[in-house]
User: What shape does this take?
Amino acid sequence: MKHLPNYRALFLQHLAQTSPAPLLLEIERAEGVYLYDTQGKRYIDLISGIAVSNVGHSHPAIVQAICEQARKHLHTMVYGEYVQAPQVAFAQALVNTLPPSLNTVYFTNSGAEAVEGAMKLAKRYTGRFEIIAARNAYHGSTQGALSLQSQETYKRAFRPLLPFVNYINIESQSDLEKITSQTAAVIIEPIRAECGVQIPGQEWMKQLRKRCTETGALLIFDEIQTGMGRTGTWWALEHYHTTPDILLSAKSLGGGLPLGAFIAPQEIMRTLSHDPILGHITTFGGHPLSCAAGLAALHIIKDALPEVEQKGQLLEKLLGHNPHIKEIRRKGLMMAVDVGSWEILQEVIRHALHNGVIVDWFLFNNHSIRIAPPLTITEAEIEMAAQILNESINRAFND
Ligand code: PLP
Assistant: This one.
């Protein structure tokens, strides 16, 4: 018999760890909404690898686009010098999903890099240095993005971080006064994901836009989780009829390959190319493989989009019958299911995993189940997943 290396032990030995308790699933292959481990066990992925696999895993059209591009060329030059067809075609398709003013794309490798680029762009364009972020939001783990996080727990060990960062509470009328003519940018997630899908009202969003326009502060929407169809529209901004000055995307943008972007009007973006030149540069940002995959993903999402809200409603209805659930917060297929406590939540996750459904917790919410399945999930798969999840919730409460 062929002797396989003990990858689990080697993972713990040779790969840097981010927590003392990694999930340690050993995935061999993935297809559609399913992950398969090395023992052949099948799991329904209800979290899309944390809001990445909006088109499911290894979609044939994405694999084909990657192979075709790989046969043509891989990396040829750092970002912004050569005309690379996959980048251009994807940028054009992407801006066509957005309000007309958001017409210029700067591709990055990740979400945090898009955040960094956007903060630099706002400083450069406005000549100001204060950034205002929302409390309990998450924008990434690099030093600039981490500076935007309000929780001291995650920041203390890494100080000093960026100065001149202030915070507002979402939906606070009085906090809007903190935005002044000193403010370079206000960055928010239109729906805050990591505090458990918190959905603000339309009116406050309108007032936020108004205040930014009045003070000359740029409004940045971090749509890294909410974008690319997740909430039932291309972008969450559509729910608010509000256009930011800069929009951020990543995670699902590359159809499963690493890709991020900050997107802004050309007049704003242009300032990164002079005084100084090379105001923001990257070697791999907008990699041709990622852009080819992203374009293929965009077409798949376009087809899936009309049914996203309906599928979300079905999942909400199937879980909504469960008397143990305290609250469900949802937009499209972005959902948080409140089960009341950290202990119960951990039990639900454990039982669900045992029974072949992957759900998770949120960074800043210790009592809600994270649910964000691929947008391509079928109604039959939703029914199957909901049944296992309901059983897992019932077991967690009855144990
Ligand atoms: N912004 C939001 C809303 C996110 O959820 C994340 C990652 O979870 C980021 C930014 C950072 O993205 P990345 O992990 O690709 O750096």
In short: DSSP finds 13 helices and 15 strands in the chain. The longest helix spans residues 379-398. The CA atoms of residues 7 and 26 lie 8 Å apart. The chain has two domains: 7-58+305-398, 60-303.
